[in-house]
């Protein structure tokens, strides 16, 4: 017998589970369908982010950073460490525990908010009779069909493969395999100098791998403010990451125990490298596999994303889509905001997502975070602006932490002083960027931040000083 719901969410990642919770909070009978499984074939909601993305990568980044500090930075603090070693299986087990805690937390939140959870793959069966919504098939341990008046699609994305080079997760690794390497590879290759490539490359470099990053684009982190990107590249190279830009990947041959990559460098010279493991991180593609969208006439765009308007409405009545499977940045927090907004729109409210104030973070060391426009974007758009920077080497808290790399950069309108962009490379950039997001959401000026009292000593003082520097009146540099 069919089960009827006001809202059915397909996908339990950041966009999906948050949409389901918000819909339930608003009084709708809500179901969420998710097929992720843990090692025991039990439910593991949270999507790519929780299972093989944001959460496990941050766990490994923390573990590897602790190891690097113990081997290098502790001595400066008078802490002696003899016989330092790392237990990779233990590190991975801790990562798995962190993931499970998040999985279980989502299941608890479903129960708390009275969201009905179905463990399986959700797909369209047909439009319900009498225009009463849509029938959704759940293919799990036991197949069943449910009906939803409103459908929210939050099916996420998958890693992009190189042509004719499928992931085997043993030698040719996606983000999934990169998070589960069971021993430190002597030589690790990374194709793609994006977020995943740099984060995973950093993890395994810290614990002893020789890491080579091959990037097709001629500029490092082209989406990042150029000044910040150049500073970050300099710091990564100093740490030991070998970064090659402007390369053209040729033949890739997987042997029994290694991978050979042939490529042309930025000077046109033929090169060959042999790696124990190869991480391919060249972007992600929308996941619509098995959704059976043709059964109801759901429209996809030319790149395979579910086509939506500004409000996340698809071409079908009462069918919505959020997160990685639609246009816009593939970020967990963007998906969450869209999920909340859609639930509120279904309730007749005015859900809000401001794409101009979505923060970006790369959790390397130093961290890189930004919001708003880059300097090169402002130049291309012909916007008159003022810039102010402040280095962490002049910040007392950064000196005490022993991490003075990087800077904070403010970009403000030359006439109105409104903040147009803030860019940070340095310690705890992921936390510091929130002040800039709040300021920009309220259309603050650089002068507003410059006039706010910041605790001393704190890293946030670098934010204040960069705002002061917009008017060329920094106090501590």
From TrEMBL:
SS bonds (residue pairs): 49-54
Annotated ranges, domain FAD/NAD(P)-binding: 5-339
Active-site residues, record numbering mapped to chain: 456 (proton acceptor)
Alphabetized Pfam families for the sequence: Pyr_redox_2 (PF07992), Pyr_redox_dim (PF02852)
Molecular function as annotated in GO: dihydrolipoyl dehydrogenase (NADH) activity; flavin adenine dinucleotide binding
Gene Ontology BP, a term: 2-oxoglutarate metabolic process
Enzyme class label: oxidoreductase
Keywords carried by this UniProt record: Cytoplasm, FAD, Flavoprotein, NAD, Nucleotide-binding, Oxidoreductase, Redox-active center
Occurrences of domain Pyridine nucleotide-disulphide oxidoreductase dimerisation (ranges): 358-467
Cofactor(s) needed by this chain: FAD
Subcellular location: Cytoplasm
Transmembrane stretches, start-end: none
Catalytic activity as recorded in UniProt: N(6)-[(R)-dihydrolipoyl]-L-lysyl-[protein] + NAD(+) = N(6)-[(R)-lipoyl]-L-lysyl-[protein] + NADH + H(+)
Binding site for FAD: 58, 122, 155-157, 324, 330-333
Domain of life: Bacteria
Residues reported to bind NAD(+): 192-199, 215, 283
Cofactor annotation comment: Binds 1 FAD per subunit.
Gene Ontology CC terms, in alphabetical order: cytoplasm
EC identifiers of the protein: 1.8.1.4
NCBIfam families the UniProt entry points to: lipoamide_DH
Additional observations: The active site is a redox-active disulfide bond.
Family of this protein: Belongs to the class-I pyridine nucleotide-disulfide oxidoreductase family.
Name of protein: Dihydrolipoyl dehydrogenase
């Amino acid at each position: 017998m069919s089960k009827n719901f006001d809202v059915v969410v397909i996908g339990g990642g950041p966009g999906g589970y948050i949409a389901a919770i918000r819909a339930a909070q608003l009084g709708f009978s809500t179901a969420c369908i998710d097929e992720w499984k843990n090692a025991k074939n039990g439910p593991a909601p949270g999507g790519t982010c929780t299972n093989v993305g944001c959460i496990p990568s941050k766990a490994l980044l923390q573990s590897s950073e602790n190891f690097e500090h113990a081997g290098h930075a502790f001595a400066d603090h008078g802490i002696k460490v003899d016989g330092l070693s790392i237990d990779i299986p233990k590190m991975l087990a801790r990562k798995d525990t962190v993931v499970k805690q998040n999985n279980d937390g989502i299941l608890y939140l479903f129960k708390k908010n009275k969201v009905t959870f179905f463990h399986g793959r959700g797909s369209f069966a047909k439009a319900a009779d009498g225009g009463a919504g849509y029938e959704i098939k759940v293919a799990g341990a036991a197949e069943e069909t449910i009906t939803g008046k409103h459908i929210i699609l939050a099916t996420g994305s998958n890693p992009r493969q190189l042509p004719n080079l499928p992931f085997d997760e043993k030698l040719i690794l996606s983000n999934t395999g990169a998070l589960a390497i069971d021993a430190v590879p002597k030589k690790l290759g990374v194709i793609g100098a994006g977020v995943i490539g740099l984060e995973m490359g950093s993890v395994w470099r810290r614990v002893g791998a020789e890491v080579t990053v091959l990037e097709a684009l001629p500029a490092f982190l082209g989406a990042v403010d150029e000044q910040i990107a150049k500073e970050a590249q300099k710091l990564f190279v100093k740490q030991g990451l070998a970064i090659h830009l402007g390369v053209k990947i040729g033949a890739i041959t997987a042997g029994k125990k290694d991978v050979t990559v042939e490529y042309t460098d930025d000077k046109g010279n033929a090169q060959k490298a042999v790696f124990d493991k190869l991480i391919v991180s060249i972007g992600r593609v929308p996941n619509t596999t098995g959704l059976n969208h043709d059964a109801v006439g759901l429209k996809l765009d030319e790149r395979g994303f579910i086509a939506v308007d500004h409000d996340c409405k698809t071409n079908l009545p009462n069918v919505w889509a959020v997160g990685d499977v639609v246009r816009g940045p593939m970020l967990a927090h963007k998906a969450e905001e869209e999920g909340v907004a859609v639930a509120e729109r279904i309730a007749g409210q005015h859900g809000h997502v401001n794409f101009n104030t979505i923060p970006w973070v790369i959790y390397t060391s130093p961290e890189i975070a930004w919001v708003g426009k880059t300097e090169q974007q402002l130049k291309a758009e012909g916007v008159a602006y003022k810039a102010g920077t402040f280095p962490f080497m002049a910040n007392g808290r950064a000196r005490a932490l022993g991490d003075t790399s990087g800077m904070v950069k403010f970009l403000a309108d030359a006439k109105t002083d409104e903040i147009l962009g803030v860019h940070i490379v340095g310690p705890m950039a992921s936390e510091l960027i929130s002040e800039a997001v709040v300021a920009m959401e309220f259309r603050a000026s650089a002068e507003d931040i410059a006039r706010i009292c910041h605790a001393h000593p704190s890293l946030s003082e670098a934010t204040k000083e960069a705002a002061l520097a917009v008017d060329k009146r920094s106090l501590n540099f």
